[in-house]
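Changelog-adjacent note: as of this version, every example in the card shows the full chain rather than a window. The one below runs 348 residues end to end.
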Amino acid sequence: MIRKLLLSLLSLAVLGLAIFAWQCHLKQDQLQKAKEERETYESLNYYTGTFTIDDYSFLENGTGVAVHWKSENPEEDALVRKYATLPATSENPTHVTRGAHNPNYIVRENIKLPSMPNIIDKKNEGNYYTLSIYHIKNQQLEGYKEDLYKLVSDYNSRYLPRGIEETLTVIDGNNYLSIYASESGEHDKFQTLWYNLDTRKIEWEDNKTAQYQSPTFNFKLNTQQFDEKLGNFKFPITYPLGEAVDTSWIRNILMAQTDPKAAALLEKTNSQLYILDKSVKDYLEFYSLLVPSNTDLYEGVIPASISKDGLEHPFNSKEEFNQFYDESKDKELMKQKQNKSILQERVY
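Full-length structure tokens:
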């Protein structure tokens, strides 16, 4: 009887020790995983997450499109916010997003790297540098994703992607994204790889950058009252990952009346507004939607090249602008400028 009791007590002791050892193992394993997790995400000094557009609305006047970006990895985004050690600024771009756009395409960078791509010579497993690209056609968005490391390596196996130009260039009717690239060890001087967004191929390389083709216009907008509020909707886009911004002002602007769906999208976190300006008139109509309906932004000088009578005309109201402005001349001039994009040698 005593022997059985001792054996039972011994069995219980052994079982207790086994359970204790297993709990210690689990605790140690949890601590190790937590340490590895912390080290992984504290070392991520350049993270944007991966986003795709899940909803959008074109403005009724055709001058812009509001989009909502949805994260593909919200759990990892949360870990980055938890462990991020650097503030989200352009100098320390943890979870800062950049991109490029024109009236034909929207491009957004998706990055997960221990440092800025221009100083990294090897991509570690689990890291990435991709692009979310959307073609704007007939008020529809057609999207695809491009792996920059693969794209650049397929073009030249010695090259690594170092960044992208934050404007898109139209050359001879084709839309191009400028990708900066260099060989391993070269962190200061880059080649420009000209990626045709229409054919999805890198067509050539050189050491040039394209001059931005802005509207041919001398004018000023009365932007003081709303310029600061537009900060999170300007492009190239720069804003902290998933950070909620003050959008209460959107309910009081003209867009809330003319384009309620677009305005509602902009009130959501991770939404953006892209201007699709093709003329001075488009530009002014776009910004007029971002102020109260009784605000007049029209003030400036219409140059002779885009006026109806070939003379220069100052204006101080929308009525005066419409009286002298020739939209057909303006669009033709912009088309000519786009087809003759000026490429300049990069200066270091």
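Structural remarks: Residues 234-239 have pLDDT under 50 and may be disordered.
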